[in-house]
Specification:
Layout lengths: L9 E5 L3 H14 L4 E5 L2 H10 L4 E5 L7 H11 L5 E5 L4 H8 L3 E4 L4 H66 L6
Parallel strand pairs: 1-2, 1-3, 3-4, 4-5
């Protein structure tokens, strides 16, 4: 799913189930052409991946050895706060987990592929718009910082001008006092 900028969508799938980790990315690539799907079999592997790659969407299983999907999402948010994260689980009460992690969405196992793809498409659009808006916000902040610097410099310049003017008056007053008086 390349956007107008031509950049393919990039998704990270984290699950300790090797069969799912092989099948799910293939489904994503077939149903969302041009998509790059990275995989990780553990939370540690996922954290290493996101340190170097800014994915559009991250999909993670809830129950994994070592670190739960909830803990993983919390850690990933520290590194990638604007990336939508989708939680997957066979747990019968999925919404509670998704709410606790502020996950973008929840995928119930066994996975309904149509629902998964629709959720991913929305998440990719959201991700791109969120990152674009954040970039615009950063641009505005840079311009504001420049404006503040210009105002600061203008303030310093005004002080120098006033100081110079004050020194100029003092010099004029001194020069008048030493100037020879004309005789009448």
């Amino acid at each position: 799913m390349a956007m107008n900028d031509g950049v393919p969508a990039r998704i990270l799938v984290v699950d300790d189930d090797l069969a799912l980790l092989e099948a799910l990315p293939e489904t994503m690539r077939l149903r969302i052409p041009g998509t790059i799907v990275d995989t990780a079999m553990s939370a540690a592997e996922a954290l290493t991946s996101i340190a170097g790659i800014d994915h559009d969407v991250i999909v993670t299983d809830l129950v994994m050895p070592g670190m739960t999907g909830i803990d993983l999402i919390r850690k990933m948010r520290e590194v990638r706060p604007r990336t939508p994260m989708i939680l997957m689980s066979g747990n019968p009460n999925p919404q509670g987990y998704a709410l606790r992690t502020r996950a973008y969405g929840f995928i119930q196992k066994p996975i309904d592929r149509d629902f998964l793809i629709a959720t991913l498409r929305r998440a990719i659009r959201y991700s791109r718009l969120s990152k674009k808006a954040h970039g615009k916000t950063e641009d505005v902040q840079k311009h504001l910082d420049k404006l503040i610097e210009v105002q600061r410099r203008m303030g310093e310049h005004a002080v120098k001008v006033q100081s110079h003017y004050a020194d100029g008056k003092a010099m004029a007053s001194v020069s008048e006092s030493v100037a020879p008086k004309s005789s009448s």
